[in-house]
Every structure is written in structure tokens, then in C-alpha cells.
Amino acid sequence: MTDYRVAAGEAQEDQVTAAIEMYTSKVPSSIFLGAAIASILGSVSFQIAGKKHEALFVGQWVAPFLILGLYNKMVKQHGSDATSRG
User: Fold this and answer.
1) I need a surface site. Which of 43, 49, 76, 84 has the fewest CB within 10 A?
2) Is residue 38, in this structure, part of any structural domain at all?
3) Quick one: CA dihedral 62, 63, 68, 73, positive or negative?
């Protein structure tokens, strides 16, 4: 069976990704958590108001905010690239 895994340092990110991560890594992780909690509260509010479609729409924002927060945290801890650690 062929091993298709990529080893650390084997692939590099481009400069666009590095530039984006340079700016977004300055955003505190609590912003993403706060956005997720606000989405939950907004969804509950819409649900109470009887606006089910809006509640579902806003409720679906929770997971992307948490995933973006995790990505942000990983960039802060590990850098953009395995080769950037030096």
C-alpha cells in the first residue's frame, strides 16, 4: 500500500497564505469564541421570536467561527509552515 502522507517541511505555503496569516494571527482567540457564543444567542433569540429560518441560518455560523478560532490558534502555536519554525 502506498503512503501518501506529507511530512513536515515537504510542502510549503505560498506568500498569500503567509501574508493573510500574519494579519489574522493578531486577532485574539476570544473574538472567535465570542462570535460563536453570539451566534448561539442570536439563533436562540430568532427561535423564540418564531423566525425559524433565521434561527437556523445564524445557528450554522457557530461551527465556522469555532473552526476559524482553532485555525487561528494553530497558526499562533505552530506558525504558517513547518519550514517557518527554523
Assistant:
1) 49
2) yes
3) positive
Quick check: 81 and 13 in contact, CB under 8 A? yes
* Residue 4 confidence class, pLDDT cut points 50, 70, 90: confident
Residues sharing a CB contact under 8 Å with residue 46, sequence separation 6 or more, in sequence order:
52, 54, 55, 58
Residue 35, domain member (yes or no): yes
pLDDT in tens, 33-79: 999 999 999 999 999 999 999 999 999 999 999 999 998 898 888 77
Give me the pLDDT at residue 84, please. Answer: 55
Cα–Cα nearest to 63, from 85, 41, 32: 32
Give SS3 for 76: helix
Q: Does residue 66 lie within any of the structural domains?
A: yes
Domain that holds residue 35: 27-78
Domain count, the chain: 1
In a domain, 46, yes or no: yes
